[in-house]
């Protein structure tokens, strides 16, 4: 969860402390060195220097469990499509903050020897990511490097396209040498009203040509989300659903006898009624690639340009999911 330096990252009367895995739902498991990087003392120092970007948030622990894919759980849909198992996977995370989610992805991606994780945040937060992820500074992106850090301010087309051009994240007819973005990860980013439109704008930038190839499937957008204020957050989902189709991840537990429980929304047992959490998996609606993305934030959140028309409109997917009981 990140925002504008000295504004959203440092809201008035900021009074937050570290959040550890035992305080929330998680199977997060790191080595001793990374435990120190993301532990209580490291978070306290991070909060002092980087504000809310220096804290690990609830939905981050939820999505690390999804990434871990423990043998005691079965997910639908899974993080990785089976048909992508032989392809290079490129994960780009928005608002990486401390880097705990990017670190977990890199831990899994390193096993393949070909995947790449790109952690992004505001330029002033990138030093925290570089420190925590122990990556090579910009300019030295060798083939063996698993994780990179790059600045990406939400709403900045230049930041998004610079990453695409630098790393050549477009279709290569000669053999797909560089590959395309396959996953866009968002963890606890939907909250501050003034950042909802810029966040959606960046998601549209990263799922529109030239960021994506017309010859490859659209990236999966993974959004780990904890409800904090529906009145503030619903406008994002009402606009997001116009451009993206999305569904919650469901899961079931598997015991030692290989017996499985009933399917339930993953995150449904994170806490009480005041702790509703989701992981959504989304893809860009193919027809939306022909729509004009409005320049004004108020128009984007109002649905202008969606469905190819200039009128205001909204999508009801999120509200329908809540009414169906998937939020219980």
TrEMBL record:
GO terms classed as biological process: methylation
Gene3D superfamilies documented for this protein: Vaccinia Virus protein VP39
UniProt cross-references to SUPFAM superfamilies, sorted A to Z: S-adenosyl-L-methionine-dependent methyltransferases (SSF53335)
Keywords tagged on the record: Methyltransferase, Transferase
Record flagged with keyword Methyltransferase: yes
Pfam families: Methyltransf_16
Signal peptide: none
A Gene Ontology term for the protein's cellular component: cytosol
Transferase as UniProt keyword: yes
InterPro entries registered for this protein in UniProt: Methyltransf_16 (IPR019410), SAM-dependent_MTases_sf (IPR029063)
Entry's Gene Ontology molecular function annotations: S-adenosylmethionine-dependent methyltransferase activity
UniProt name for this protein: Methyltransferase-domain-containing protein
Organism name: Suillus subaureus
Lineage, top ranks: Eukaryota, Fungi, Dikarya, Basidiomycota, Agaricomycotina
């Amino acid at each position: 969860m990140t925002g504008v330096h000295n504004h959203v990252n440092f809201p008035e009367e900021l009074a937050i402390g570290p959040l550890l895995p035992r305080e929330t739902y998680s199977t997060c498991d790191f080595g001793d060195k990374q435990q120190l990087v993301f532990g209580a003392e490291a978070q306290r120092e991070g909060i002092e220097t980087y504000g809310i970007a220096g804290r690990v948030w609830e939905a981050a622990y939820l999505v690390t469990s999804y990434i871990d894919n423990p043998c005691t759980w079965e997910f639908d849909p899974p993080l990785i499509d089976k048909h992508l198992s032989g392809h290079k996977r490129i994960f780009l995370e928005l608002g990486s903050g401390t880097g705990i989610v990017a670190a977990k992805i890199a831990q899994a991606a390193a096993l393949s020897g070909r995947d790449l994780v790109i952690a992004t945040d505001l330029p002033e937060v990138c030093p925290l990511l570089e420190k925590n992820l122990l990556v090579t500074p910009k300019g030295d992106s060798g083939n063996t490097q698993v994780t990179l850090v790059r600045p990406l301010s939400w709403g900045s087309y230049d930041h998004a396209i610079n990453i695409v051009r630098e790393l050549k994240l477009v279709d290569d007819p000669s053999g797909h040498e560089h590959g395309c973005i396959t996953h866009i990860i968002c963890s606890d980013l939907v909250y501050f009203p003034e950042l909802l439109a810029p966040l959606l704008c960046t998601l549209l930038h990263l799922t529109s040509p030239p960021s994506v190839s017309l010859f490859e499937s659209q990236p999966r957008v993974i959004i780990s989300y904890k409800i904090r204020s529906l009145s503030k957050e619903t406008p994002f989902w009402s606009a997001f659903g116009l451009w993206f189709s999305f569904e919650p991840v469901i899961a079931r537990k598997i015991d030692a006898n290989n017996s499985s429980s009933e399917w339930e929304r993953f995150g449904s047992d994170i806490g009480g009624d005041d702790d509703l959490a989701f992981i959504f998996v989304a893809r860009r609606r193919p027809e939306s690639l022909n729509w004009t993305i409005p320049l004004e934030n108020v128009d984007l959140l109002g649905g202008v340009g969606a469905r190819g028309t200039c009128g205001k409109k909204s999508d009801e997917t999120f509200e329908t999911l809540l009414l169906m009981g998937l939020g219980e």
